[in-house]
Design brief:
The protein is an all-alpha fold and 314 residues long. The chain has a domain at 99-277: MetI-like (MetI-like fold), CATH 1.10.3720. The protein contains 14 helices and no strands. The longest helix has 36 residues, at 87-122. It starts with a helix and ends in a 7-residue tail after the last helix.
Length: 314
């Protein structure tokens, strides 16, 4: 176990270094000149040259990268070219918003998706199986932006139960914060719940056919104990992997959902940065997102061992 985690930890730095190279290099292929965007209507060649020199855009690409990665190692992600604010501050402001939204959406997905998957597998080819599969198909097929608009019309406009948009920080007013994020979290969570349901069902069907499940039933254990303690525990291993990937996707920003509900998270931040050629913000957000992905996969490795004792000797 320690050896496996040691190998994974040793892969973190090379992976992040490769990601930083790809992000820095690929964004240079984006059309347009950042100096022209920053200059606005001013097209004086002297002004453009001054902007390029200030931002080190007149240097070779390799030197630009080395300068940037050297600052990143020291904890400096640079300054936003557009609003002249440290990227670290922007990330620190937007990340808690996305973390809250992602955590709520993930919790909704797990609470809905995993029980439905277990029920569908245990009641295979029954009414409950068909109902769970129908709900999963609906969750996968429904566009997030459409569901968000429909919820706003029903819950906010017609019933007046929740605010239609906006965001209130948890530290400011936790009740209002939950009220402004529950609908977007539900929109994001239903789609992931459908994925959880399908994978949990498939894993449970495989687990229920294994010899150790037959042995547990032969010993006279109750069906609940057989399903919950023996089958589900082993079936959760692939679901944990899926959960780490889906949570990472949520943290990278759900752009359409954030736009519909006016949530100032990572999605809106990176979209604005791309449109304004604000390279330091794009680089910083992508690097932070990649780091979160890697940490989530490390957490998944630890959960494997906690769920499946047979892996503790690996």
């Amino acid at each position: 176990m320690r050896g496996h985690l040691g190998v994974r930890l040793a892969q973190v730095i090379p992976t992040l270094l490769l990601v930083s190279m790809m992000v820095f290099g690929l964004q240079q292929l984006m059309p347009g000149d950042p100096a022209l965007v920053l200059a606005g209507e001013e097209r004086d060649p002297a002004v453009l040259e001054q902007i390029r020199a200030e931002l080190k855009l007149d240097q070779p690409l390799v030197l630009q990268y080395l300068h940037w990665i050297g600052n990143v190692v020291q904890g400096d992600l640079g300054f936003s070219w557009r609003i002249r604010e440290p990227v670290t501050n922007l990330v620190a402001t937007k990340l808690p918003v996305t973390l809250q939204l992602a955590a709520m959406a993930f919790a909704i997905a797990v609470v809905i998706g995993v029980p439905l998957g277990v029920l569908s597998a245990v009641k295979k080819n029954s009414f409950w199986d068909y109902l769970a599969n129908g709900m999963g198909l609906a969750g996968l097929s429904t566009p997030n932006f459409w569901l968000g608009i429909m919820l706003i019309l029903l819950i906010s406009v017609k019933l007046g139960w929740l605010p239609p948009s906006g965001y209130v920080p948890l530290a400011e007013d936790w009740r209002q914060s939950l009220a402004t994020t529950i609908m977007p979290a539900f929109v994001l969570g239903t789609g992931i719940a459908a994925v959880f349901m399908r994978h949990t069902r498939s894993a449970m069907l495989t687990a229920l056919e294994q010899d150790y499940v037959r042995t547990a039933r032969a010993k006279g254990l109750s069906e609940f104990i057989v399903v919950a303690r023996h089958a589900l525990r082993n079936a959760l291993v692939p679901v944990v992997t899926l959960g780490a990937l889906e949570l990472g996707t949520l943290l990278s920003g759900a752009v359409l959902t954030e736009q519909v509900f006016s949530i100032p998270g990572f999605g809106k931040l990176i979209v604005d940065a791309v449109f304004n050629r604000d390279y330091p913000v794009v680089q910083g957000v992508v690097l932070v997102t990649a780091t979160v992905y890697i940490l989530l996969n490390l957490a998944a490795d630890v959960l494997y061992v906690l769920i499946n004792p047979r892996m503790r000797g690996a």
